[in-house]
């Protein structure tokens, strides 16, 4: 009980620091989410947008990890996907235990229901949405996940109109009321013992930019969500892909 109380007070304090004074009803819901699901505002599990709480993909994965989720399976639905129009549909199944029948969720994405800033990443968005819906079913989470929204929502607190670049300083490590992406990425690297240099190279390639600093915030957030999913599902496969970004030694002709 004491531990829950400390977590709740820390969450409330951190939320006020980011989004200012919150309505009593919003704080009451935050208290419930803290005690029931141990969601952390500081770690980016929750976002407060347009007066509503949203759970993030990384927050859902942490819940699954704490509840000892047995596995997550995703399958592309070829019959109803249309690569020509960049419409993708995924089916995700979450297995809470080794003998679980599984909880199913579907996710779709196409240029009409994703933010213009992540156009071209519809396939990854569809898979993330499917996983999120399956996780919310499996663990009885009534909050919508922020990745399921059709466009980038407005933060509830005022901030800079330029949301494209990743913040590097100021605002206590936050931009536009959202936890700094660099901190979330560093946490993932530490949790899964990944090579930071290889992750950076992979991130730039994933975002289609010469360097990670040239990517938009939305592109980097999509990368972090995908990295968290892959690290949780298939760390060995992720390590193999990261190793492909290692610089090969130059061959010197005799």
What does this entry look like structurally?
This protein has 254 residues and is α+β, with helices and mostly antiparallel strands. It has one domain. The protein is 43% helix and 13% strand. The chain has helices at 2-19, 24-37, 57-66, 122-138, 181-192, 196-207, 217-233, 235-243; strands at residues 46-49, 52-55, 71-76, 88-95, 103-109, 174-175, 178-179. The strands form three sheets. Strands 3-4-5 form a three-stranded antiparallel beta sheet. Strands 1-2 form a two-stranded antiparallel sheet. The radius of gyration is 19 Å and the shape is globular. It starts with a helix and ends in an 11-residue tail after the last helix.
Task: Describe the secondary-structure layout.
Elements: H1 2-19, H2 24-37, E1 46-49, E2 52-55, H3 57-66, E3 71-76, E4 88-95, E5 103-109, H4 122-138, E6 174-175, E7 178-179, H5 181-192, H6 196-207, H7 217-233, H8 235-243
Antiparallel strand pairs: 1-2, 3-4, 4-5, 6-7
Q: Which descriptors would you attach to this protein?
A:
globular, 43% helix, two-stranded antiparallel ribbon, 254 residues
Q: How far apart, in Å, are the first and last alpha carbons?
A: 70 Å
Note the overall shape: globular
Number of discrete helical segments: 8
Strand content: 5-15%
From the alpha-carbon coordinates, what is the Rg to the nearest angstrom?
Answer: 19 Å
Percentage of residues in helical conformation: 40-55%
Low-pLDDT windows of residues:
152-178
Structural class by helix and strand composition: alpha+beta
- Provide the number of structural domains: 1
SSE run: HHEEHEEEHEEHHHH
């Amino acid at each position: 009980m004491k531990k829950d109380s400390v977590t709740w007070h820390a969450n409330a304090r951190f939320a006020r620091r980011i989004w200012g004074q919150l309505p009593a009803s919003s704080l009451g819901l935050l208290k419930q989410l803290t005690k029931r699901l141990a969601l952390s505002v500081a770690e980016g599990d929750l976002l407060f947008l347009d007066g509503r709480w949203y759970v993030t993909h990384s927050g859902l994965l942490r819940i699954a990890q704490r509840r000892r989720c047995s596995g997550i399976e995703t399958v592309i639905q070829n019959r109803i996907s249309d690569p020509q129009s960049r419409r993708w549909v995924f089916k995700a199944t979450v297995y809470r235990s080794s003998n679980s029948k599984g909880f199913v969720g579907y996710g779709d994405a196409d240029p009409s229901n994703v933010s213009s800033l992540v156009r071209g990443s519809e396939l990854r968005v569809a898979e993330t949405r499917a996983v999120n819906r399956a996780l919310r079913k499996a663990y009885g989470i009534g909050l919508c996940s922020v990745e399921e929204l059709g466009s980038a929502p407005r933060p509830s607190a005022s901030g800079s109109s330029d949301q494209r670049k990743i913040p590097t300083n100021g605002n206590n490590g936050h931009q536009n009321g959202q936890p700094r992406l660099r901190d979330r990425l560093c946490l993932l690297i530490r949790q899964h013992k990944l090579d930071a240099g290889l992750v950076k190279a992979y991130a730039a390639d994933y975002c289609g930019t010469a360097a990670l600093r040239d990517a938009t915030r939305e592109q980097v957030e999509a990368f972090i969500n995908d990295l968290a999913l892959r690290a949780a599902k298939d760390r060995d496969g992720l390590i193999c892909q990261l190793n492909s970004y290692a610089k090969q030694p130059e061959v010197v002709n005799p």
